[in-house]
Amino acid sequence: MDILDLDKEYWDNRYKNRETGWDIGYASPALIEYAETVIPKEASILIPGCGNAYEAKALLDKGFKNITLLDIAPTLVNQVQKEFGETTPIRIICEDFFEHGEKYDYILEQTFFCALDPILRKKYSNKMADLLHPHGILAGLMFNRTFESAGPPFGGNKTEYQRLFQVAFDILKMEDCFNSIPQRQGSELFIALRKK
Predict the structure, then answer these.
(1) Is 180:157 a contact under the CB 8 Å cutoff?
(2) CA-based nearest residue to 139, from 152, 128, 130, 126
(3) Whether the Cβ atoms of residue 67 and residue 59 lie closer than 8 Å to each other
(4) Contact (Cβ atoms closer than 8 angstroms) between residue 183 and residue 130
(5) CB of 51 closer than 8 Å to CB of 71
């Protein structure tokens, strides 16, 4: 099976043409609540496939400073850099996730996993583990449903995710998300996975 051509040009064109149906216009409440209750303010945080960086803006307002944003789309990255300005403590990097090589305490997942061709899911899990410090945490939201139309987004389910992540991670939490946004109620899992 061939990997879908969801490359830099594909995503850049989506932003250029404002084809961003996944963009909810504000930070995910589930991610922000998790960060506020679990993540130390000084922890290093990566947000891959950061999109319009609503989570980063909300975390910055709450005192988090060590945040790195990663996205493959140059048009988006330029826009986000302009919004944050020259003096932001947030690092914004235009790079392919699979090429990134730094280490973090926490990685926040928000509509990145579901944007990747499912054939890349094992590679995603391995790369997430590689990007985390020992016992680092991957936390965030994943769809717990299938989609009628061809993706992205691509769906999945808890059983599939348990099989996928148990090799490199201890599953601390993988349960129905109680504070999903209204349009995703009942269709998301909140995950917290600790690197083995």
Answers:
(1) no
(2) 128
(3) yes
(4) no
(5) yes
Backbone Cα Rg of the chain: 16
How much is the pTM? Answer: 0.92
118: preceding bond cis by omega (within 30 degrees): no
CB 196 within 8 A of CB 146: no
Q: Please give the Cα distance from 169 to 129 (Å, whole number).
A: 7
Phi, psi (rounded to 5 degrees) for 32: -70, -40
- Residue 44, helix vs strand vs coil: coil
**Tens of pLDDT along 116-165?**
999 999 999 999 999 999 999 999 999 999 988 877 889 999 999 999 99
Q: Token match 């594909």: residue?
A: 10
Cβ atoms of 68 and 93 closer than 8 Å: yes
Token pair of 143 as six digits = 């769809």
Phi, psi values for residue 24, rounded to 5°: -90, -10
